[in-house]
Amino acid sequence: MLKYFLRRLAILIPTLMGVTVVVFVIINMAPGGPIEQKLQQMRFSGGDGGGSQMGGGSRGGTQGVSNEVMEALKKQYGFDKPLYQRYFIWLKNIATLNFGESFTYEEPVLDVIVSKFPVSLQFGIVSLILSYLISIPLGIVKAIRNGSSFDVASSVFLFILYSIPSFMLAILLIVFLSGGSFLEMFPVGGLYSELYDELSPWEQFLDRIHHFTLPLICYTIGSFTSLTILMKNSLIEEIKKDYIRTARAKGVDEKTVYMKHALRNALIPIVTGLGGFLTVFFAGSLLLETIFQLDGIGLLSYKSILSRDYNVIMGLVFIQSALFLLGNVISDFAYVLVDPRIDFT
User: Fold this and answer.
1) Strand partners, 184
2) Are 304 and 312 contacting, i.e. CB atoms less than 8 angstroms apart?
3) CATH number corresponding to 115-338
4) Contact call for residues 289 and 170 (beta carbons, < 8 A)
C-alpha cells in the first residue's frame, strides 16, 4: 500500500508540470498581453515616448512607440527571452515559491494571493463542513424512509434548489431578504459592518454570521443537494446486498443494520469528495463574489485574466492544480480507512 501511494505522489510531479506547460503556452499565445496593455495606458496618459514604428515582437500594434521603449518594456516583463527560456526560469523560481511580481498590483504574486485568501478560505471550509453535516444525516433518513411522503417532499425541494443557479439564488435572496423589495433581514454584501472594530468580540462574531448567511447558502446549496441524493442512493443500494439480508435473518434490529453494517460501506462513494477539501482553500466564485461584494480568489482570477497578469494566473493554476492532485491521493487513502478490504496493490 505504501508503495502505491509513493508512486501516486511521484506521478504528481510530471502531471503538474504538464498542466503548467499547457497553461503557460496558452496564456503567452493569447493576444493583448501585458506589453500591449501597458502601451495602451501610456497612450491614454500621453506618455508613449517616441515616433517610430516598431514591428514584430508585439501582437497588438506598436505605432508611435520607439524601439527603446519597446525593448525596455520587454525586459521589464521578461519578454526579451524565448518562450521556453521564460518557462524554465519560472519553473526554477517556483522551487522557492517565488511566482514573480504581479503586473497589475506591482507586488509579489504570493502576497496578492494571500491577501485574497481569507475570503475564499472561510466560505470554502464552512460550506464543506455544512454540506457533509447536513447531507449525510438527511441522506440516511431519506434512505430509511424511502418512498414516504417525507422522502418525496424533500426530494422535490432538493431538486428545486439544485435547479436554481447559485448566482440566481443570490439575486433572489438579496431581493427578498436584503431590502430589495420585501424584508431587510441581512446586509447586501461585504464581510462585516463599517463599525466592526468598535464592536465587542461577541458582537463581532454575530456580525460576521449576519454577513455570512446569504453567501454561505449560495456556496453550499449545490454540493449539499448532490451529496444528499448520493448518500441516499448509496445506502439504498447497500441494504439490498446479501450480507444485509443475512444480518436481518439473524434478528439484528433495523437501526443496527443501517447504522453499523450498511452505513460504513455506503460512505465509500461519499469519501470520493473528501479529497477535494484541499481545494476549498481556493473556493472562489466570480458571480457570487461580485454580487455579494467579496474580494476573493474568484474575482482575482477573473481580473488577472482580463489584465493578462501572467504571473498571478500561473501562481493560481499551479497552487490549485497541486492541491487538486494531492486531494486525489488523499481520497484513495480515505477509501482504505473507510473500507480496509480495498487494496490498491
Assistant:
1) 178
2) yes
3) 1.10.3720.10
4) no
Alpha-carbon span 259 to 262, nearest angstrom: 6
* pLDDT tens figures, 55-85: 334 444 455 567 777 777 777 777 778 888 8
At residue 345, the 3 state secondary structure works out as coil
**Residue ranges covered by each domain of the chain:** 32-96, 115-338
Q: What is the pLDDT of residues 103-152, one digit of tens each?
A: 888 889 989 988 888 888 888 888 888 888 888 899 999 988 888 999 99
Other C-beta atoms lying within 10 Å of the C-beta of residue 21: 13
Burial (CB count within 10 angstroms: exposed 0-12, middle 13-18, buried 19+), residue 239 = buried
Half-sphere exposure of 18 toward its Cβ, with a 13 Å CA cutoff? 6
What one-character DSSP code corresponds to residue 14? H
The answer to whether the beta carbons of residues 150 and 159 sit under 8 Å apart is no
Which range is most confident: 58-62, 192-196, 278-282?
Answer: 192-196
Q: Which three cell numbers stand for residue 280?
A: 476549498
Q: Which residues of 84-105 are buried (b: 16+ CB within 10 A; e: fewer)?
A: eebbeebeeeeeeeebbbbbbb
Summarize the confidence of residues 254-269 as an average pLDDT: 81
